[in-house]
Specification:
The complex is a heterodimer of chains A (about 325) and B (about 325). Chain A has about 325 residues and is α/β, with parallel strands linked by helices. Chain A is built from twelve helices and 14 strands. Chain A folds into two domains: about 5-180, Thiamin diphosphate (ThDP)-binding fold, Pyr/PP domains (Rossmann fold); about 195-325, 3-Layer(aba) Sandwich (Rossmann fold), CATH 3.40.50. A seven-stranded mixed β-sheet of chain A has the order 3-2-4-5-7-6-12, sandwiched between helices. In chain A, strands 9-11-10-13-14 form a five-stranded mixed β-sheet, sandwiched between helices.
């Protein structure tokens, strides 16, 4: 199986789908000649031309709106918002138009579009280029929310996203782009709503997303030395959420820690914790614990940004708190 | 080129259908038969009629919160529209959308829209689809003077201009965004002046003259079909009713102003022209009106007798499974 990095895996998925379906096209800022600010779409314009790899003005509302309108009329756009932080100026087109059109129109329209965007902190990009906003999108009926953690997952989930007939928000943590992993060749899909157990364990369940999956895996190795056997569940899609896999894991371990890079308050972990409390309270040995960012904007100074992002140490501490009661 | 007689009659029928539909909705709303709010198009009929008379079924439109006229002019079904406005299961959207969210993708109607300025980017997208597929289809974006101040509108026009998208931005300048007069909300004389900012033609027409609207729309649509890009077509008009039913529209508009505009009502003007040009007689007009009245009565009955959606319908149609 070939090894590639996360960005290459995404490009591989885009190329496969563009070769397969002439109605798939890319639209966004600097996705063409420049190949995206992280190099994700590099070379695609050479293969597919300007018609299908469309550089836009700086115009987020029009990017998303053009994607929505063209999707309603039979195309399958993959739109890009350079940083998810930029979604604010264009949110209406996503949450009031794309997400609601099918319902408002009584199920008589489909909006098969993907919105890709880079998220996450860790590059010193400060408050408006570093956020994790997945909870915003989870809160909107009509949207799918995908958050991969590995190159192989990114590729399979993106192919699924492009073939899905719903609007999909596909969130790519920017510090994962250079991470490597084995990626199957050719086309394959990973169903939405199917979590992946990234590490099996019996003592405690850790639900983690995106970059935090890797932090949790490292923490788990260290905890193993202390005799704590951690199971790590990566939901991969936050909407739909694979409740069963999370619940089954909790029923086995009786302990739950949730790790995400979003702020803790009203983050995706709040939904997961509430869901487990509603459906598996009797299986829990003690309180659910969340390891997440504090309730402040993403800071600039390296000392502050490092403190903002949940660390392996904090995950270890959280797991120990839960395990030791 | 003179407008064919058949087209003139078609436009008269459409205008009257809109006027009578809206009058019916007004009555039904007053009788508490319609939930929520309705924004009526009375007084602005010439705009939707003149523009949509230049379109094909395969062309697209995006509409607004004041959308009934656009939908009817694009071929919307009276029965399904009324049922939707009533919130009935048999309506266009199974009762899930209501007056502000009626769509019919088969007729190229990408929906009325509850968000002012929500439609222009969608219209650019529909036009992009037509250009991408290599058809000569066009998209028409109806939007008001209020929406002309929204960033989404400017973004859509700029993108459409850059890519020469086959879209016509039809501004219905009825002078008011709810209570705010356009004189206080923009610092150019005409919305069409803003076309210069995007390097596209900006055209102003009397939006209460259906022939003027039609002729200007023919040019703009032709230009779009030929791949020459978008046009901003501003139609000066006026709403006779308030912003919504229940708003008399007099707190922010003088009685004199309202009366002045009622004298410019597009319908008597067109009737006079049709009679003088011997396109229609009073008698043939009467028979057109009778046909419309019958259609509306049947639609009303259908809407009244139709069931509301079941509670089990609440969470369906959110996703494609």
């Amino acid at each position: 199986m070939p090894t590639m990095n996360f960005a290459e895996a995404i490009r591989d998925a885009l190329r496969i789908e563009m070769e397969r379906d002439p109605n798939v096209y890319l639209i966004g800022e600097d996705v063409g000649t420049f190949g995206n600010v992280f190099g994700v779409t590099k070379g695609l314009i050479d293969q597919f031309g300007e018609k299908r790899v469309r550089d836009t003005p700086i115009t987020e509302s029009a990017i998303i709106g053009a994607a929505v309108g063209s999707a309603a009329c039979g195309l399958r756009p993959v739109a890009e918002i350079m940083y998810i932080d930029f979604i604010g100026v264009a949110l209406d087109q996503l949450y009031n138009q794309a997400a609601k059109m099918r319902y408002m129109f009584g199920g008589k329209i489909t909006i098969p579009m993907v919105l890709r965007s880079a998220c996450g902190a860790g590059r010193g990009s400060a408050a408006q280029h570093s956020q994790s906003l997945e909870a915003w999108f989870m809160h909107v009926p009509g949207l799918r929310v995908v958050m991969p953690s590995t190159p192989a997952d990114a590729k399979g989930l993106l192919i699924t996203a492009i073939r899905d007939d719903n609007p999909v928000v596909f969130l790519e943590h920017k510090l994962l782009y250079n991470t490597k992993g084995e990626v199957p060749e050719g086309e394959y899909t990973i169903p939405f709503g199917q979590a992946d157990i990234k590490r099996e364990g019996k003592d405690v369940t850790v639900v983690a997303t995106a970059r935090m999956v890797h932090y949790a895996l490292n923490a788990a190795e260290k905890l193993a030395a202390d005799g704590i056997d951690v199971e790590i569940v990566d939901p991969r899609t936050l909407s739909p959420l694979d409740e069963d896999t999370i619940l089954d894991s909790v029923k086995k371990t009786h302990k739950l820690v949730i790790v995400h890079e979003e702020v803790k308050f009203a983050g995706s972990g709040a939904e997961i914790a509430a869901m487990v409390a509603e459906k598996a309270f009797d299986y829990l040995d003690g309180p659910i614990l969340r390891v997440a960012a504090p309730f402040c904007p993403v800071p600039f100074a390296p000392s502050l940004e490092t403190e903002f992002i949940p660390s392996e140490e904090k995950i270890i501490e959280g797991v120990k708190t839960v395990v030791q009661g | 080129m003179p407008i064919p007689k058949k087209k003139m009659i078609e436009m008269y029928t459409t205008m009257m259908k809109i006027r009578m539909f809206e009058t019916k909705v007004s009555e039904l709303f007053a009788a508490n038969k319609i939930p929520g709010v309705v924004h009526l198009y009375i007084g602005e009929e010439a705009v939707a009629t003149g523009v949509c008379a230049t379109l094909r079924d395969t062309d697209y439109i995006t509409s607004t919160h004041r959308g009934h006229g656009h939908l009817l002019a694009k071929g919307g079904d009276v029965k399904l529209m009324l049922a939707e406005v009533f919130g009935k299961k048999t309506g266009y959207c199974k009762g899930k959308g209501g007056s502000m969210h009626i769509a019919d993708i088969d007729l190229g109607i990408l929906g009325a829209n509850g968000i002012v300025g929500g439609g222009p980017p969608l219209a650019a997208g529909a036009a992009l689809a037509a250009q991408y597929k290599g058809t000569d289809g066009v998209a028409v974006c109806f939007f008001g003077d209020g929406a002309s101040n929204q960033g989404t509108t400017h973004e859509a026009m700029n993108l459409a201009a850059c890519w020469k998208l086959p879209v016509v931005f039809v501004n219905e300048n009825n002078m008011y965004g709810l209570s705010s007069c356009a004189l206080n909300t923009m610092c150019v004389a005409d919305v069409a002046d803003r076309a210069a900012a995007f390097g596209i033609p900006g055209v102003v027409v009397d939006g209460n003259d259906v022939i003027a609207v039609y002729e200007a729309a023919v040019e703009a649509v032709k230009r779009a079909r030929k791949g020459q890009g978008p046009t901003l077509l501003e139609c000066k008009t006026y709403r006779h009713r308030g912003h919504t039913e229940g708003d008399p529209g007099t707190a922010y508009r003088s009685k004199e102003e309202i009366e002045e505009w009622k004298k410019k009502d597009p319908i008597p003007r067109f009737e006079k022209r049709l009679l003088q040009g011997k396109v229609l007689t009073k008698q043939t007009m009467e028979s057109i009106l009778t046909t419309i009245a019958n259609e509306l009565a049947a639609g009303e009955q259908f809407a009244e007798e139709s069931p509301y959606p079941e509670t089990s319908d609440l969470t369906t149609d959110v996703y494609v499974d």
